[in-house]
Request: fold
Amino acid sequence: MAIRRELAIALGKLDQDDPSHSHPSQGIKLQIIQSRIFSAALRIVEYWNPPPSNPPTSTPQDPTTQSSVPGIPNTTPSPRDPAHTHSLSRRARNAVISKKYTHPLSPLLSGPLALLTFPTVSPAHLKTALSILAPRAPGFAAPPRRTNPGYHDPVTQAGLQKLLLLGARVEGRVFDADEVRWVGGIQGGLEGLRGQLVRSLQGFGAGLTGALEGASRSLYLTVEGRRMMLEDDGKGSGEASEGSGG
Reply:
């Protein structure tokens, strides 16, 4: 509870400085999970694609039609019934059981785990969360005692010492601890990252243009120098012929 309290306080302060007042920290959750159950659920979400079901042709709300007309699939209590295609069905289990060790997060799903989830990718909120849960100076320094005395409480510190940053999944890609901190260190969030990409592309374009102009200028000077050499050789041959003829 102490760790969740300090995390909520830090994220709340960040939301207060957000001019958009979107309050994304309200969707950030810190949860302790059972690794085996989470691993099974993750495989279902990633790899199970149930076949599309035919919508019923009847309208139960209409008293003139029967809800038991053909078109509504009948199911039996047996788990082997192929009509069962939900996430806890045997068909779903059989479809993903071979993927047990192939998910990119599988190496991290071992032992007691805590999961920090974000509704959207926000480098600023990630940086604040890392400063609380896995601080590392200078970029992710822990809050000072003067402004956050509760963070330095012995109970809070005892819980934080048990936490170890393993990795994260961002936009479908698995990141290790250093890469997670790189995402948290992006200045200006995703807009800042897009700005860096635009500047890089502009710099690359300017460099390419300069290289092409330099190459064309060098080619022109080479051709021009060769032309002048040929003209000088031609003049020298003509003068030599006149002298021998005199």
